[in-house]
Amino acid sequence: MTKQRPYLVGITGGIGSGKSTVAKIFAILGIPIYYADDRAKWLMSHDSELKKAIIEKFGRESYSESGELNRSYLAAHVFADDDKVKTINSLVHPAVKRDFESWAAAQNSPYVLKEAALLFETGSYQELDKVINVSAPLKIRINRILLRDPHRDEKQINDIINKQLPDEEKNSKADYVIKNADNKLLIPQVLAIHQELLSLAQN
């Protein structure tokens, strides 16, 4: 009898929304978490097919002589240009998709979570069974980031927020919305979604 693949669930949220905190609660419940943004960085340094494609598009300088990703070069020559960002995303996205699928297939769990900042922006939410958006008021998000990242100022934070889809749009696209505001308890919201996902995955 072939092993059934787990139910694939995405978890996203704008910067400062608290999606990492919510993901940790799911992890405590025993749900495997795939951190897509961290994994993308790892693949850019270790996936030979992806490295070859990046070098072809952006030049040998994209990597050091020892084969490490040249982050300062990419920051200056790629990430400052929106068209080049789209190009590099078009290379990284398929590699992450392949990596996530093989990781998910190896998990022994009714469902797994894929945590990523730009699930809706990249269109990768369409490859998942359900998506959770972690939502928080803008003022709270900005205050959280200022406390967490003292090297950033409010203008930098607003620039990042403006590059992400508005919360209202993410909420309308998501199957579940977790409200992470000061007057909302996270754990009961997570437990309710967890129970529903277990039920869906088992059916």
TrEMBL record:
GO biological process terms, semicolon-separated: coenzyme A biosynthetic process
Keyword check for Transcription: no
GO molecular function, one term: dephospho-CoA kinase activity
Keywords recorded for this protein, A-Z: ATP-binding, Coenzyme A biosynthesis, Cytoplasm, Kinase, Nucleotide-binding, Transferase
Keyword Repeat: no
Gene3D superfamilies according to UniProt: P-loop containing nucleotide triphosphate hydrolases
UniProt EC number: 2.7.1.24
Residues bound to ATP: G16, S17, G18, K19, S20, T21
GO cellular component: cytoplasm
PANTHER family: BIFUNCTIONAL COENZYME A SYNTHASE-RELATED, DEPHOSPHO-COA KINASE-RELATED
Function: Catalyzes the phosphorylation of the 3'-hydroxyl group of dephosphocoenzyme A to form coenzyme A.
Protein family: Belongs to the CoaE family.
Listed name of the protein: Dephospho-CoA kinase
